[in-house]
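ENTRY TYPE: paired fold submission
RECORD: A
CONTENT: sequence, then structure tokens
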Amino acid sequence: MQINKENGDLSDNMATTVRRRFHSRHGNLVLLTNNSRTASRNEPRQEFNNGLVISKTVLKDNEIFEVSIDKKVETWSGSIEVGITSLDPGNLEFPTSATGLSEGAWILSGSTVLHNGEAILDEYACDLDSCCIGDHIGIQRTQNGELHIFHNGVDKGVAASDLPARVYAVVDLYGKCTQVTLIHTANMVPNNNENSSSSEAESDDNHGNREEDEDTEVEEVEDVVVAVDNASVSLPSNDALLFHRRHGTLISIINNGRTAERGNARDEFNNGVVMTNRLLRSNELFEIRIDKLIDKWSGSIEIGVTTHNPDTLDFPSTMTNLRSGTIMMSGCGILTNGKGTTREYGEFDLDDLAEGDRIGVMRKANGDLHFFINGRDQGRAASNAPHIIFGVVDLYGMAVKVTILEWIPPAAHAMASFIDHRVPRLSYLRSLAQQELPNVFEAGAWEWTDKPHFHDTCGIHAQVINNGLTAHRPNAMDDFNNAVVLTNRPIQTDEMFEIRIDRIVDKWAGSIEIGLTKHAPQELDFPSTMTNIRSGTWMMTGNGIMHNGSPIIDEYGLNLDRLRERDRIGVMRKRNGDLHFYINGVDQGIAATHVPSNLFAVVDLYGQATQATIVQPGDYQVESPGIRIPTDDGTLRFYHLHGRNVKISNNGVRALRPSATGEFNDAIIMSNRALRDGERFEIVIEKMVDRWSGSIEAGVTTISPEELDFPSTMTDLDHDTWMLSGAGVMKDGLMLNNSYGLDLDTLHEGSRIGIVRLDDNTLHFFLNGQDMGIACTDVPSDVYAVIDLYGQCAQVSLVPPTELDNHLQHMNSRTDSHGSVIAVPGLLHKFHTVCGSNIHLSEDLAVASRVRTFDHAVTFSSKPLRSEELFEVKVEKIASQWSGTLHIGLTTLNPDDISEGQMSLPVTANSLRSKDTWIVQGSQVKHNGQIVKDNYSSALERLEVGDTVGVKRYPDGSMHVFLNGENLGVAALDIPKTIHAIVDIYGIVESVGITSSAVMSLESIKPPSISSSSEEESDKEGESTCSIPVHPIHFHNNHGKNIGLCNENMTASRTASYNQAVVISDCPLPRRQLFEVKLEKVTDEWTSSVKIGVTSHSPDRLGFPASASNIKRGTWIVQGDAVFQNGHKVRTFNGPNLDQLKEGDTVGIMVDGQSNLHLYVYGRDCGIVADHIPNPCYALVDLYGQCVEVSIVTEELGAAGVPEEKEKASFENGLKENTPRSLFPIGGNGRVCEYQNLCIRFKATLGLPDAYFETNPKFNKCYCDPCRKYQGTSEYGDQGDPLQRYTRPFGWCKFAIKLHCRAETLNVFDMWHMAYHGTVLGAVRKILDSGMLLLPGDITLGGGSPTEQSNHLNEDDTHKPKDFDTKQIFVSPSMKYAGCNVYSRQQQFTDPKTKRVCTVSVAFQVRARPNSYTMGPQTIGVNHSIDPYIENSKIEWFTKERSAIVPCALLIRVE
């Protein structure tokens, strides 16, 4: 049978159905079934390759070898690969994938055609990676030697030509594709016996392939029907898609039928239905662009398909009213015939789209209906969609105007791209000429005469400046992506394209990305990030390489995320097709092979990277080692060899961890020489970040820097090293003493740490000049100081010994009006972040540079200056083309007032009039622009690089200016006390760096007291009890359209409807600060209720959706009993359901120091609901449904948002009572938990010191039956590493114990196991006094000694194991076991309030270090199961290690 390609007619020949099989030899993970017609890949979720199968016989000419995709998994990237090979599978050594066939193979991988592993066509008309389950893929070798690929019966065109006559079909079950089945295809074989016989004879003579005829089953089939898309109906025309002339009553069609607009849009929200003028074809995209939206109505555009003919349809007011033949996307759901079939579909909500966004719909050939948002396929919305469909759009609510976009079919687009991209280019002609006429056009004869520049067409957040040499992201603090820039021409072979990073910000994660792409800047639809491009692109991102959006190398070269300002990155395509990247001129090796030529360089200014400049080899000088490494003059410095995440600056005096919020380790630094006996190596902490646990570590080692292979952390040094980590002294990684007098984890900015080895071989540590005692003995001489900038510690500087001695001598004599102060060596001043528009601040706000012109360069000190505090800068760079020079002085202007929008920043310091300002300008002194002193000093007019200029206010109110350390005398008088330094980097001075140190109160650098070091977390269920400053928070003026604010923005009310009522805090939510709201008004008119959470969006830039759950990025919301992240439900929890809250109830959120989000209800911590919360984040409240009005709970209502209600003092029975209100009111109606109050009254009778317990009652918890039911707490939990099961102490009341600071350092609450220890009343005080559980025979503080409990493994117990040592500590993960009368003896108690006699028991909740205890069976002699969640054989734990058990709460049970 033959097909006439011009008219599609079939010849009268009979079709034959050919049944083929896969060859018995295949990839080593393939399993053949179904008589070798089905192939599947074993272990599809563990392995992605080794799934190669080949046809058993040679393909006949024009035969289609077709498979159906049966199964896919989403674990991997990439999918099925198909093609042909001339190699005999019987003799083939199978590679891991089809692309590894390196001889006689033509393979389609994704949309790229490869010949022998090398790409010959980048964008073929079929993309195999997008194929779905059920799709058919066919392979055909035509009689003229061409390779064709078929997708669902549609010929996708020529993939390759000049194929050999004898080829086999190849199918690779790669990546997502895990199973395929051969299907019977109607092949066009002429039904002519003579021709057939001669053909078969010829085949046998030429190839000797008798097996082919034996293994190929041929069945005659008559009346073959060839399925053509929509062939059974009137086929859609090829006319352009337009809107139909008939439409909804408020619609106007303009722009030749391409644009539809709803009239009277502010008065009417419906009757805006429009349809296409013709039927949609299968695989045809109907796409529209939103041109206009109005912010009045709720709801927005809806789009879909319908079988209704627009010529006869009675158009409804809204399309969702149609009850037949209609599939619509509305909001984030799918409606079929007006009823919801999919509640949450895709990544986007149509109600949240903005003007310019695109929406499309397509019916695939297999009947699946897909929607597209801005070109991104949202997945299958419906299956078995009808063939006869029209496109339909409903301009509903906010949507007013849309335009149909022209769609180019993939095959036409590929051909157009091939022609448009390659033919017109000079590079293409050049390469063609070199290939065809190598003798005329020798390699290198043609070169680009112009250097590459950035093209003006770039991402929406990027801007090209500096004549095309520089690209930057102007609003770098507000956005982190959409900043892709490309070169204006392709990069030549062996041409280095290199850029220099000019500017970095620390706000975001990730950084610059660079690579090559075939896409020209004029034709690229710029993505948010270049790694989203799926064709013709190679990118280096982080330390990995990606090709077409998929990683091909995970560990390659240095990590781009760790590069800093002035670092250089380059890319080059070698003549052999290899791709190389360069960092600071160093080749990182081969990143990819077989990379085609004529590619554009691409740079993505992502995340931290905000500006980059193209550089040529002559634009920079390679620094010699002598420039970076100070000469060895005997002065102590940091050595130039260090951990990979450290930067040494300031001539070896300062060390910092550049990516302090993204990296916490790999930051070890060492002294440049060995320490002398008695010599103090001292550093000052300059910067800390509130993100990680743990902090700086310090010590000494005999290992020289040249010999050390720097590990990730200092504790990994396993020989010849003595160090202090937290409060633990370690030698070679092993703990010697865990309670040294100095705890490094408690230090703060400004703290000084010293290390001294004395001649008696002892090692001492110093804090702020005070010797903390001997840490180690027998420390050899010639040791190097070693510091680890770990965790929270991000930057330190060395304290010069001379400065240190001088300050130590005068510490007690320096005073002023502010009290005792000292200048802390190394703790440099900083510039304020408020500065002129031409200023760039770097080096942690210590260097200010003017980036253009000569003005708009005013800077301020970051804080007000104290009396006699010198603020000094050093001239770093001069620009001689300007006149004028630096201005310096003092001002009463607070830069924070400018940041809050209260006033604007002047062009120059001289023009500042709004606040009292005194400046020295050249030889003149001016006050508010008026000259008050002339001829002050002419030296300031002749500043040079290296000169220092400073300003100081003395106690008598006089201002003095210093030049190179020399006091130039009184410049002005009567200067107020509260002043900032002001420096105008004007005229010839282009850059300055701060050289002066800050002044601090002596009290702020005292060693921590015992009380301060005892503040700890009370439990995993609570938070840190350390004092956190509370920042006032209000609602922001930017909010949902149905919100009204009052009470100084402390109260928010919903004014209409049930949604559009999202409010956000006016400032970021500080870590460990509770944000809580009270429900002031609730209605039962609606369902659902308040939603609360956090978002990383700034309130100034947030586009408020109808509901907080619809925010698609950087947002975590608690709704009902579920948590939503970026609009998707990620989990449910067992705590209170927010939909059940009543008027007067409170709900809040808090982000702890580990970036975990906690939910609070009635002031009670309900646990962690989300983790990895970014900083900064803003509190978000949605007054949804039943919730009509909320108010922010202020500090006056208590730390937890619930007032601590004090009962009247009662002196009955000599007991003074001070009982707090229960923090968990039952039912939210204000009633208190009487059981908890009863336990509190009993605890008061024990006379236990308050200092042993947490002062904040929110860390206490009641487990009585009513509280348990309301909380919804489960009966058991899993805790520690590895996880260990425990049961909760139902029926008991918990009182949290204040723990030592080492508990957090040891990660007790996250890593240790939960257990319980039953005891008697007389032992409670003894355990609290010692801080640990006691072994039998231990001597307590009072002189007593605990004894073994009766009925527990005594000498006469028959169930005691032989030779078992009973002098151990016993605990249990089961409260039912630990709280039984054997361990927790009951005692009578008379309630002083009710006079009722009760029985009471006590126990301790403890944490047990993993692997420190032994599990054993129950030893109380029972025969039944004690706890349904803990096996009797593992219910008792025992250990002799006292420090392995930490009591964390006292438990009381009253019956």
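RECORD: B
CONTENT: sequence, then structure tokens
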Amino acid sequence: MSRKTVPGCFSRMIWKKHFFKETCCQCGAPDTEVQNEELEKRGKVKKRKKKNENKRVIISNLPFGSKKWNENPNRYYDSNEIKTTKYTILTFLPKNIYEQFHRFANIYFVVIALLNFVPVVNAFQPEVSVIPICVIMAITAIKDAWEDFRRYKLDKEINHMGCYIYSREERAYVEKCWKDVRVGDFVQLQCNETIPADILLLYSSDQNGICHLETANLDGETNLKQRQVVMGFSSQNTLFEPEFFQNTIICEMPNNDLNKFKGYMEQPNHERIGFNIESLLLRGCTIRNTEAAIGIVIYAGHETKAMLNNNGPRYKRSKIERRMNMDIFLCVGLLFVMCLVGAVGHGIWTGNFSEHPPYDVPDENGNFLSPVLAGFYMFLTMIILLQVLIPISLYVSIELVKLGQVFLIHSDIDLYDEEADLPIQCRALNITEDLGQIQYIFSDKTGTLTENKMVFRRCTVDGIEFSHQENARRLETHKELDLDDEDFAKLQHFTLPPMNIERPATYKQRTMRPLRRCQSARAHFQGHTRNRSLGRCDSNQSQVAFSSTIEKDVTPDSRLLRRVREAALQTENLSPFIHMKTSTSLTDFFLALAICNTVLVSTATEPRQRVTVPPPIKPSGITLEKIHQIFQRLKLASLSQSFSSSQSSSDLGTSFSVKNAEEHLAALDCCDNDDDCCARGRGNELQGKGSTDIGSASLDEVFKSVTNSSLPTDFCYEAESPDEAALVYAAQAYSFTLVSRTPEQVTVQLPQGTVLTFDILYTLGFDSVRKRMSVVVRHPLTKEIVVYTKGADSVIMDLLEDSAKADTKAEKRMKRIKEKTQKHLDYYAHDGLRTLCIAKKVLNEDDFQKWANFRREAEAAIDNRDELLMETAQHLETKLTLLGATGIEDRLQDGVPDTIAALREAGIQIWVLTGDKQETAVNIAYSCKLLNQRDTVFTINTENKETCESLLNLTLEEVRKNYEVEKPRRKFFGIFPTSFSASEAPSPEFGLVIDGRTLNIIFQGGLEEKFLALTTHCRSVLCCRSTPLQKSMVVKLVRRQLKVMTLSIGDGANDVSMIQAADVGIGISGQEGMQAVMASDFAISRFKHLKKLLLVHGHWCYARLAKMVIYFFYKNVSYVNLLFWYQFFCGFSGSTMIDYWQMIFFNLFFTSVPPLLFGVLDRDVSAETLLGLPELYKNGQNSEIYKLSTFITTMLDAFYQSLICFFVPYLTYKDSDIDVFSFGNPINTISLLTILLHQALEMRTWTLFHLVTMIGSVVFYLVFSLIYNAACVVCNPPTSPYWIIEKQLSDPTFYLLCLITPVIALLPRFFIFALQGTFGASLILKAQQLDKLPKGQQDLEIQKLRSRKQTTSGAPVASPASNDDPDQNISHLCVSPFLHPVAAAVSRGDTESQGLSASEVNPLRKWTPEEGYYFFNRWAEEESTTTDSSAGPFSGHYPLVPSRVTTAGQDSGKLTKDNANSFNHGSHRRSVSAVTL
């Protein structure tokens, strides 16, 4: 077996299928004890010494050859062979039968079959009664065997893959199968090879001891992760020799936490070396960018972390299944009553004889049975006779139907994402119908509602804001120019010159042009497997994460670009004299963006080959003479009116000098006043499109002389998160280009062409506790030690140096920068941007050395290592100097607003649970139509229980007051709601925003009920800054307390607990890996797919299955009752008028296929109508098809039909001399026809399949009866079915009965259907009628229905004219309850999205933020004093309450005027009322 035949990088599909087909990832919640228990069950851990109970001790296997293997302490550990099958050939039968007996129905039927073997009570031939249960269990066993055989094949494929293991005999690495790898073996791995077990890294061919991993097989992430050789082994220059390895490894027991691992290595001299997850190579990952790596196996086979995560999904029972189990108990009750009637009847019958009848045979002593005992025996006989009342085949039928439904969902082309080449995955086969009954949706924000494609939008440096209008326009153009496949193909083949297609997509945006068509298209076709015929653009980059065109191409802000280049020239000019000590904040800001990350650099030509050595660059060699020439050219350029030929005709505008002067004044104005620069930024928009491009174009020209030493190659950046990539691409746009990175050094090229190589002293990675990352570097010119830090503004702002210690001038400047930056950050957050602060700190040598010693001790520590490392990081990241902040846009996914609007119309409540900032989340909520322009938004942020309780009470009281006033107003207009249910969306006037701290107070203080009472009256709820645990607690709270069906949807590891807590969990296979998908029931690639999945497939699955379950109950009750009515005419003797074989085959074959087909293919309403009328979804939400009332109605109908089917033939043949089977055969035939015609009445979709199965069932019944009656002469002594059907087929009475009886039996049902269609037409019936209309007319009718519904429900109709009246807008601004001059925080309005410019909607928009804020407060005060109490709900105002809401404990949640000032920046834009409590 050579390495060629067994490739290292095996099919990713096989790996995912095998390991994560049914995986329930629990990375977030490791449970070592549980894992240990599992291992103990295998009998491995018991044999170990007690002192090492919680530790694993590993030594090298080399001293113990095959001869001494019994002495090897590693022999007790699992081998690397994996076995995911349940059965072997020997254990299959007993184990499978045992598993099937976990189902109550199977035990019930087996007991009854065994009861039939007792001679006193038997009703059938004993052998015959075993057939049904055997057939059902055989079908299930075959299905289980097939699934297990597939698992066996995958196991075999993986176990026989090849890898190299060190052999002592051959003194070399020899190739062996994966299954032969043992704990303690040394394994050599090569580039692109898959790791066979969990291996501790001891050697890497990389000179710095780094090994790169791609974890896509494990978590779906395509970005590379770094792993470091264990500390004592990294300095070796020679190849690692396994023979000399004599250390003992002590590490933790196997567990399922993919992110944590710790242990230490004890050398022969008892010195200990600690290691962690950074040195562990996990099974299933792939080696990249590393020629060779060697390690020792720590965990193998089922003890590896990948396998321990393969727990399988938790079993979820669907709502219909729970309802069905209740109804089965009702059927058992019904069976008991019927058997009791039979027993009592038999007792009375036998008691009425004066002497014993001739058929009553005494026992051997001549004694006769007493009537009571005879009645008891008859009770048992009746149970056997009427057993079919419990539908035996229902469970198997449901499983088959769900498989069919899953296949149809999986095959839906609308749920296939061509860009990612991902269809929908149905991972849970048993809850498809729950998709049609969802009442609450809990959604994550980042990556679920948004793209998780981070695009650099704006930044603020030194308190000056740079709005990047050109970049915003490029992104708008990108949105407009998105092409589909056909257009792209045409464009590529006909319109684009070849050079444009070949051009790599890394370095394009140097000028201010919007994206070209070819570039915008390119972003969408990287990595398509379906588009190979077109030829993939940039196919070599297809593997690189976070590198789509839209993310890479940043158009610089012309003002900022000019400042950067001026600073660069200045620095270059002065550097010989003062060594860059005057280097500006600008330079530091962009250096921080380029350096403070863990981004790997590779070239565009070889995206997986890391750049560690900077490419040769011509020395810049700029002399003073040259700088003088450049300044001369700059002066000329500023006066020039000419444009370079490279600019497009649309780039016309005013001259550079005019713009320069304007900007200079604006900058002065900005620096001298405390006004926000953003206002000026917005003013610049009015200058027109052209003027933005001139400055930088001229500068480009000027700068050619400086940057002609540009880098010879383009770079690809591989980041661990999309935010990191966006910041590096932004730095690159301003010519701060990250050139190479090694663990020790990072190289950056500056705008003037100088290449600086910084020594990396320490990197403090990002974590969710610190919420920041830092890098400590030594500056190559000044030799200073600089700490660059980036992180969340909530954290960084508290870590800044106290300005009180600085002198007055510097203090004022720092204070002003901080205030302005905070203002800009609030503005960014309001704009829905993700914000990051950038800061720095300069350390002196002594301080650094002290800290470094402290850090080294922490790294070497074995106990409390993580806590010590955290402490050292926090100790370093203090007294920072603020450089600036960035705003990154996480763009909304396509179709999100439409999907949310449709789901809300369907009566589904939507909550967003996010860890993001409050302002960002609120803004996204507005843009995706989760909150309406007219909503009153309550924001509750507090850390005090009393405050929280009083706020909830006040808000609830006010909401209820408005809610109650709403109702009479609706009735006044003569509009009555059609139906109220738990899931119906409440009056759409209120939204609630709450943060994680307040959620903690609610959960800990027992305020859940008040919180839920408030949320039921709210249109939407946003929980911000919430932890994964809080997310799952919220879902559980709503699910348990409100007794509603819940759905959670998310895309990241932090959403796993929320997804598992809901009734239905949906994972989005996005950019954050596969953890959410692995834990989910269904996996989709876009949020918009949820619309069709729920509204169409959910509705269909529920309707089909609900009708099928009810039909099964009807069918069995209707048939069993025929036997029950016969007991009244046979002395309750337990005999039957129908042949046993025909009775058994009736349910098993004659009537089994049509309901299966009905359950898979029936469509009561077409997909187009279901999407056009989302309200149809409420049918499933309210369980209108299958509930107690419909069950009882169906049972009554079954009783009626059985009476007709029995008594019409009985009255026909009364007083005739026909035998028992000649009487029973017509009843059996009539019953079959009635039951099949009943099914036909229920069907809404007729296809050829339906017709064939219907007719086929009748034909099969007749053919079987003819053959059986002809062949069976002495089958059933003493009565014989011989030749009965043949005689009856020649009798006209038989045909007449078969014609008339089903009609009489089905007449009431048909009559009720007709009445429903004529008079009380439900929405479903209207929709069914719409489906019959021509397409155009159908669309028209749907529009009419929707507009009528919107008018009646009082929901706002989304029309552009809704905000036309400025006065009306203003009347809405401050009508909220509890409006306080300080505490009112009025959010901004997204009025542009409604098709109106801001000035049209709100003439006050042009004011400065401060003016807007004070205007609002004054206006609010006037309003609160002058508002007449009569201005009730009819005037559009909410009643105002006095502003005495501030309670004693509310200081923590209260806003000061300054805070409100910054919080309310731009607040005059939003035409809604919002209340911050």
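NOTES ON RECORD B: The longest strand covers residues 450-461. The chain has a mean pLDDT of 74.
STATUS: closed
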